[in-house]
Amino acid sequence: MAPRAGRRRALAAALIALLAASGGAAARPFTDAAGRTVELPERVGRVLAAGPPAAVLLYTLAPDLMAGWVSAPHPAAMPFLEPRTRALPAYGRLTGRGGTANVEALLAAKPDLIVDSGSLGPTYASLADRVQAQTGIPYILLDGSLAKTPEAYRQLGAALGRQSDADALAAEAQRLADTVERAVAAVPEEKRPRVYYARGPRGLETGFAGSINTELVEAAGGRNVAQDGGGRLGNVSPEQVLAWNPDVIVTLDPAFAAGLSADPLWRDVRAVRSGRVYVAPLQPFPWFDAPPGVNRLIGLRWLAARLHPDLFPQPMPDVARAFYSRFYHVDLDAGQVAALLAPTPGSAPGPAR
Fold it and tell me: pTM score, two decimals?
């Protein structure tokens, strides 16, 4: 009991010290995407992301302000990350499935601000309020839906004092989305490919229509075969996939994709027979999902070109180079572009899952 009591006293002392240190600093009110008013310090120097989507958002706008990663980047992701972020510590996640961070970890990171991006539901607002009350660290929520990406950038820019940079990324995000929307708008519903998102090593988890994990399907001019699931992630049977008989399968797992043509459970699916099984590029953050963050912007353009190649004549390597320079702060060489666009069995996703 004594060691535990000692740890509690040390934690309390650290919290008091943190609050005392910030008590004299100027504060400014900020209204987040959930309608919560949060007092932010006048200057934000270190920021902690509550989950993987927020980590990607923060990285794209202000890598120099990152207190660390939610989870350590995979070695394969390192060449695709801005050098000063590669060795940042991993502190765990506060939100979503498998939360691992705790109050001690938050205090040790010494952030001026905690940022979450994703759902704005009462569960997440309650978590933000609770963590903020426990730590004294301001905690803001941003809308993580694909359509709200420009707004999320503008709000984060206002919170961090990086408005000009944020406005530029917001404008580019809007341009990417508008380019795809205009191109696919004239495609009749019946001509839009029916798409199955094969999640996990067996491909039997998927995002039902309305899920944040499959927003790209409809936005890219496809039709999600997984309907009537309440917008959730869920498991399905091979028989269900065969009954849906999708035109296209999208996956993040190169090994899964490589084995489909020889697998009796999958080889008769239309997408497998026609060779329309697409592995989303993975580094440094998967282009389709995992996490469902701003990393999906480049995935939207990639998937739309896969579903409707005649509508997107610009070469994908050129699109990728421009995106990585603007959003990921790295200039890709020809070998890196080739590796990105042709994931191989054994490839691993980046740091945010």
Answer: 0.91
Instruction: Give Cβ neighbours of residue 221 (< 8 Å, ≥ 6 apart).
Output: 180, 183, 184, 187, 192, 193, 304, 307, 308
Q: How many residues does the chain have?
A: 353
Instruction: Say if residue 261 is in the same domain as residue 127.
Output: no
Kindly report, residue by residue over 83-112, the tens digit of the pLDDT. Answer: 999 999 999 999 876 667 777 878 889 999
109 closest CA partner among 165, 70, 52, 79: 70
Separation of alpha carbons 64 and 45, rounded Å: 9
The domain in which residue 259 lies consists of 188-341
CATH number of the domain within which 239 lies: 3.40.50.1980
Q: Mark whether 145 and 199 lie in a shared domain.
A: no
Q: What is the pLDDT of residues 23-53, one digit of tens each?
A: 445 799 999 999 999 999 999 999 999 999 9
- The dihedral sign for the CA sequence 154, 157, 162, 163: positive
Number of C-alpha atoms within 13 angstroms, CB side, residue 351? 30
> What distance in Å separates the CA atoms of residue 216 and residue 303, rounded to the nearest whole number?
8
CA 241, 212, 215: angle at the middle one, nearest 5?
A: 70
